[in-house]
Amino acid sequence: MARIDAFFRLMNAQGASDLHMASGNLPALRIRGSLERINYHALENDELSELLFEITPADKEKIFQETGDLDFAYELPGVGRFRANYFQQSNGVSAVFRQIPSEILTVEQLGLPPIVKRFASLPKGLVLVTGPTGSGKSTTLAAIVDYVNKHRRDHIVTIEDPIEFEHRSRSCIINHREVHRHTKSFSAALRGALREDPDVILVGELRDLETISLALEAAATGHLVLATLHTQSASKTVHRLIEVFPVEQQESIRSLLSDTLKGIMAQTLMKRADGKGRIACIEILVGTPAVASLIREDKTYQLPTVMQTGRKYGMVYGDDALEDLVQRRLVLAEDAFEHAEEKERFVRYLKRVPEEYRELLEKANEKEAKGRAPARPVRSGR
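Below the sequence we write its predicted structure tokens.
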């Protein structure tokens, strides 16, 4: 048994999502969103290197020595699978391990909105799950793939770095490919996928222009492409997809994206108000004709308005989702305020309003008062 396995067993016992190990620091666990130090001594570079390289595949160790970065998956029988990320920093080597749930949760178990099943049933197009690191993007994508696997008869190709959730073929045939292990890069795997008769392609992350371009091409040529991006809202996701291209290409990319984009789920994990774990706040953009028109005409600044008025299509604006969680007392108003785009909507829920936001509270109160004011009688003029 590798010595580091004891940390993974502790991680599992404490219900931690991540294990942090950094040279010169005490190891720490992320539990319910917060880092908590482990009662252990500070790990110096040499000791930590020995712990890490004991579980590192020989070929991966060479990559790390050459590049200073490394991703791979590690499995500890009876405990679970972990996504490992090594990196060099000023004090030496560091690593973060993310626990990959052994069970693939379904759309229903995760409490995802019904529109997700519609996304999973699409014959073609681009569906994105976005959010910051640790927001549950991979878990949501795994649930979507699980739904496809059970309800369609198709060929699914997944491209990840590393492979996280391993799906067993059910009604579908699933092929998992890992970057640097089974293929050179995301872009190389995407090129190859177009010749592998896929119906659904999962791309672990749209990292660069070439990968984004190939994903759009795949979505435009009759494939359902599922992917992630590290963006925090639907409108910012659209901006990111367009602005990664040179200015002279952006008009054609807007046109292509308007035709292929079918949905964006921008999610954030927030601490529950009762302190029992975390809950997802999800913004949803659906690729309706109105959304396609705004993208094509470079009017994406209007997307929040479309989401607010598009509930009948399954759309949800992020601040609306946040306010719903506050009103249901599932998250604290202070946490919602920090995450909100339109902060003036949330100041009235705060117990203590910061000095710099008191003007916002006054405006919110004035707006509410006007909404309650009775309409003045209309005089006939006689």
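The chain has three domains: 5-100, 107-331, 336-368.
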